[in-house]
Amino acid sequence: MSESTPVLDVDVELMEDQLDAILHELTLSIKWGRPSILFALYATSSIRDQAQQKLEESIFKSNLEVVHYQIEYEDQLDLSQFIADISNRENVIFFIDPLNSNHQNTKINLLISELNSCREYMIDNRVRVVFWMTPEEALSLAHASPDFWASRHRVFEFLHEDKNVRISARGFEPVQTATAAPLPTRSNLVAADEELMDDSALVLDFPEFGDSSVNGINLLLMMGVGSWKDGDLEKARESLNAALKIAENSKNNTYIASCLKAIALVNSDLGKISEAVRSYLKVIELGEENVTIWNNIGKLFLKAGKYVDAKNAFNNALSLDATDPISWNGMGSMYAASHKLDDAVRCFKNAIQYNAGYVKPWLNLGDVLVMQNRSSDALYAYLRCVEMDQKNVHAWGEIGKIYFKTGSYLQAAEAYKKAIKLGVSNTEMNSNLADALVRTGQRQEAVAYYHSAVDLEPDKNRKGILLNKLGDLLNNLNDAENADAAYDHAANLAGGGLLGVPQQNRVSSGGNFGFETIQPAEIKFGSNWNVPSNHNQTSFLYETTTYPKVELEEKMSADENAMNNGFEENMNKTEDSTFTAMNQDKSQPQGERTRIWNRLGDTYLKAGAVDQAIDVFKKSIRMEPDFAENYSRLAQAFVRKLQFGEAIAVYRRSMDLAGSDQEKSGVLGLIADLHIQLKDYSAALDALENAINLNPGSDQFILSLDKIRDSLENSEKSAHADIPLPQQSNVLQGVDLNVGKYINDLVA
Amino acid sequence: MSNFDYIRATDFDRAWLNFELDLPLEPRPDGGPNPFYITRPGDPIAELGDSLMAPFYRPPKFFFSGHRGCGKSTELLHLMSSPKIKQKYFPINFSIRDEADIIDLDYRDVLLAIGGRMFRDYRRKGGELPARLMKDLDSWRGKVEEEMTTITKGRVSGFEITSAIDAFFANASMKMKLEPTTRTVIRQVIDRNVTGLIDVINSIAAAIKAREGKIPLILIDDLDKPGLKEARSIFQERREIMMQPNVAIVYTVSSALFYSKDFDSIRDQAQFLPNVKLHAHNAPNQLSREGFETLRRFVSLRMDPRLIDAKALDQAIDYSGGVFREMARIMRTSIGRARRRKASMVESADVEWAATEIRNEYRRILNKEDLDLLKQIHEHNNLEYNDRIRPLLQLLALLEYRNGENWIDIHPVLRKLLYE
Question: How many independent structural domains does chain A possess?
């Protein structure tokens, strides 16, 4: 046995090492086309997020995709089906996550049962999957399903609390506290990218210290890490400087470079940007020049507001690798911070071009597009973000704002709820959500969010306005007592001044603001990157302007035009975007060209944005009018809007185009269901008869048929009792006559 | 798994692949053993083979059990390819997962799978059944479909158009597996006349015997995957019915069922595939040369021995506890680490690393009572099947060995955890 790897007697491995190990496992399993069932244990959700983000970045760099299966967002747990539905799963790593975030998931037992059933599927189908769980969940899993536990391939731990650190590993564990990150805003994009810099900078690559002469370096580095973990940065710097001295005496450039990189990190945390940059530059002088180091330097300059230097650093990184998405994202952030928005957009698009699965540039792009008042394009970018990262609170918040601005209150409410459910909450979000709920008739639910907004609002005057709104709402809900309490509270805050509520609004005075007073002011998106110093000027909440109502049809049309002409056109300029390429390449298999549009439509549907989904699905149909699935999707969206007539017509076209009798039969079954909804039993019977003829094995259709016949028999009996038979729905009259024309009109 | 190349690795990448934990070791197309197959000490599967070769009045039924990853599927495949077995039997091997939904498994599903697979496999291999039997089977099929129609009160059943019996069985299998509603209906129909289905199985078996001169031998894999409740309902509550088919059957059963008290009455028909013994009972320092040699062979067939330090290999074997899956896990983790540190061979530090990782996994799932119990067991090695021990056996925190009588010991990686 070689003595080259001194291993301290420890129980935990550092995050970077664990990530490296997971990546090796996944890389090899992809290389050989074999399954991989990995468990990742984490101590806190922030640690999990950090680990996932880093792992995802590495995975994306390998041109692979990450698909999240988030239990809390699934209505019905069917992991096997979910995996089966992913067409390119050979290039996908599945993250099953979270098993039980905040211990609120009541489906945990169901999940465990589900895991048992899908284990063999995952092995047989060579699925690569990482199950993220807390130690408590791991314990539950092992005891509830020992067979599943025994089937794991490997378990990795991300438990930062452990003080026992192994220094023979290759990297540092980043110093991160387990506090929830504040909600980023578009105006702190630079700050967000500084976080990115810190993360990336932590990817060090320490050599394995092989001989006893460098054990001192080893120990000092360990002490440095320990101090760093304890937040004692000065002490960390002391230890690391001592390690550097020994390394310099050893005249081994690799050791010196490792120490310098560690020192750069600590200096960065200490806010000593110049010193951190100097350390990195020394590393480059030692011959270790790479993209990561230049990116880190660029981010440090960006943090310091030295945009020209940042640009030079990112340029240096890009001269080493012109396809590095992190460099392009950094460059984009630099331009954004310099108010060169068009250049920023171009850079973010380049980042996306080189890695469409990299979330940050999508998010940054969304922020810049918002500033350019291109809200439709921004919405698309944010939706892409949440498609890839459903936990992105910033994106959900922005989606909520855009929907709110365009009058899509239902969708706005859904988006805000997601953001709040993810643990980020502020006055504006709660107030907007409450307003959206009021506008969609969910007044009772709105009360709680006004309360939250009031609680969170530090400013006395704004609190008073919110209390008045709450009072109005409570009045409307006939809760005069609490309404008066809210008004009184507002009056007290104002000292009986301007914010006091006019007596006529009080129920006791016979007056009521009604809901006309709850008018959100127009959202004014910021026109620069700086955090606005005067919050009143940017927040719609405190303005008196009534939001101009946007006609839905106009909006849909505008959005579509924007999608077709604006964003897509710009993306075309980059000469490579997934969906543009798909649009152009008509030689691709059926469905492939519209796949990305359909995914977008699905995302809209999932977010409750049915109108937008319909728009997108119509676009898919125009792009691939012969692909049955496109029509089925559109029909599903119509069903969500309870537009059954339209849904039936579109399903019929889908049935005509379906490839097999079995598929046709399935669609007919859906048509029959809709006819039943419309109480058009005769048409439902016809559809079911046809479905059964096409696929005689469909027993559920036979059962449905029996049910309808029973209904009809009962109806006949009722008829004898002078009760009229159910009438054929008027909705369908005319639809059946010329389905083709109807569809053309619908889609055109 | 036909596209897997069973090639001995000369580098870490390939070695990582060869130690995949779920790698099935199918025999070669010519019936020869898989290149990675090794014979265990004492050749425990030979005992099952001998039992099957013994003269019988009625075709025998056996229960085959073992820990997850101990090699049950491999041994079944190996048994099926044995020339003497093939001489006496017409072997049919299948996984119940291909025929039914293992989450909702019922004795009727298993019986239908036996009949269906026997019929389909025999026909697929070119076998012809007598016209008279085909007529009888068609008549039975007609009755089943008629009853299904009655139950569903429907008109045309999916089965009506499947005039061929092959299609009937294939269709039934698919529906049992995928369609819960139809599954319920089929079960109701079978319930009305279980003996009818047994007769069908027996008739097919008799016809195969008459034509081939061999009795069908059904080896059903993955019957150990359903939960304990389902397994009990099949093998305890319906044991008599499961014994009725006039064919030889090897049912796999889970270690949980095997360890349950209810299983005592049929334990004489059961074979437990033991782990490879690495030391003597109650004598941890008295190492088994044969056991170590077996696992060295396990490694050397998959990987060039020059890729691992000899001492590290012995350490890995020791930590594996003689469980092949655990050995593969330790090797794979060690190889992964050696590969990451760009080493040329796996060394002791890599193996220790792997052992620490596994130990940490157990640290998360074992409580103080578990650890106290494990400590006691480690001291006396005596096996008692009780409710406290059963889950620990399933989690492989405890491993069972046979040395005249059965005995148990803790997973070797846990030693450090118990005494730290």
Answer: 3
